[in-house]
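Progress against Task 2.4 (sequence-to-structure conversion) is shown through the following example record, which the project officer requested during the mid-term review.
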Amino acid sequence: MNKIIYLIVFLFSFLFSQEIWQKNIPPSKYLEKLAIESEESHKNGLKYISYASIGLGLIGITNKDYNVQVEALGYLGLSFGLIGLVIDKIQKTISPNKPKTLPGKEFKKIKNKIGDEKEILSYEILVSLAEKSRKPIEKEKKNKKKENIEKYGSVSTGIQQLLSNFTTNRFKEQNPQYGMTPYEIVLDNYLNQKPIN
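Structure tokens generated for the chain above:
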């Protein structure tokens, strides 16, 4: 269903290109904000995971009850943590400005473009990111529905689906972006021209 909506919006954007690209806040600004936020959240991820691994490793090594398995896991965690810190340091030294996340890589494509070309490409990227982020969720829903039909039967699954739809609709009344992925929220913010903080 969402694919059809995105396709319709995308096709209308070509028909009414003046309208879609000349909004007050252009799509490139939303893409830039998304890229900056995703790069910031990803920036120190490996370092923090490495520190946590070292901490758990030290706990495993210094356990009071001599347990060979826990001690082995402690040394393994300590090793992985130290390797992670070395890799993080190498990555920051070799390519400090290279984007690591998908939005960062996509934003790099539009950085040197100007005018309508930049905005059209930015909009296409926002639509593409939203579609890609929805695919795993739809696949999981389909698998869960199939699993529920096998487990509970079609009537029970239908009742569960009705209840689920009812609660989802109630949440969407209070928050229209309920259930959207972060990339879909950015696209929705652009289409509704929500201010960028």
